Amino acid sequence: MASNTATIQTNPLIDDVPPINASKGRVVCVFCGASPGTSPAHLEAARSLAQALHNHNISLVYGGGTVGLMGEVARTLVKLSGPAAVHGIIPEALLDLERERAGQIDEELYGPTTVVADMHTRKHMMAKEVIEGGPGSGFVAMSGGFGTLEELMEVITWNQLGIHGRGVVAFNVEGYYDGLIQWVRTAVSAGFITPGNAGILVEALDAEEVVQQLKEYRVSEDRFKLDWTQK
After folding, report:
1. Which of 44, 98, 147, 151 has its CA 20 to 30 A from that of 89?
2. Does the global pTM surpass 0.90?
């Protein structure tokens, strides 16, 4: 089936962040690599995360690729929960890079895909779906490269700034994020991150723990008390 092209205005403040709606279903945004990694543990973790999302009736929004970890988590969840459980959002410039083959993305395999103009629009739309989801919605970083890390750090920063209050989880497969977690501790001891805000990013070692960490997530009292509703 055909992917659709979205035209929206990018707003880095997520369009006047709404309160959490308890009647809505949970939505998890997964940041991860368009490569499978050298260890089979990464693809296995992607499949296990999809299984956990299915078990807890959680929808997925992700970067819209069909290769690497991105494709694995989307494809697995569609098999388990159906196409409606997955929404991919991909910039037009990445269509050839993050897809397995040319042509339109098959919604029956990967869920509906929205093609957007740029990276900012992609991230805006993914974050908006999470923020508008029910309690327990949040952001999960699996193993990946520069793009995954950039997306992860942005949603951590937005949390610290009070733009959103959703959970942010590093799914730490085979110690992949040990260095990042240690860096946070170092930044705390060096006085660049408060001890409370160090907890904005939480670690999970398996897929069920990812879901549990999002469900039990508590907003840091050290976050900046900023008003993002002013025009």
Report:
1. 44
2. no
Closest CA to 28 of 164, 154, 152, 137: 137
Structure tokens belonging to residue 172: 């730490």
Sorting pLDDT into bands at 50, 70 and 90, what band is 105?
confident
Q: What is the DSSP letter of 63?
A: -
- Nearest CA to 18 among 95, 183, 132? 132
pLDDT at residue 230 greater than cutoff 90? no
Distance between CA atoms of residues 213 and 205, nearest Å:
10
Angle of helix 119-131 relative to helix 146-160, nearest 10 degrees, comes to: 50
Decide if 214 contacts 28 (C-beta within 8 A): yes
Sorted by sequence, the CB contacts under 8 Å of residue 229 that are 6+ apart come out as: 16
Band of residue 75 on the pLDDT scale cut at 50, 70, 90:
very high
User: What's the rounded Cα separation, in Å, for the pair 80 and 36?
Assistant: 21
Query: What is the Cβ-side half-sphere exposure of residue 1, based on CA atoms within 13 angstroms?
Result: 10
Of 36, 46, 35, the closest CA to residue 141 belongs to 46
- H-type helices in 132-162, by residue range? 146-160
Answer whether 161's CB lies under 8 Å from 192's CB.
no
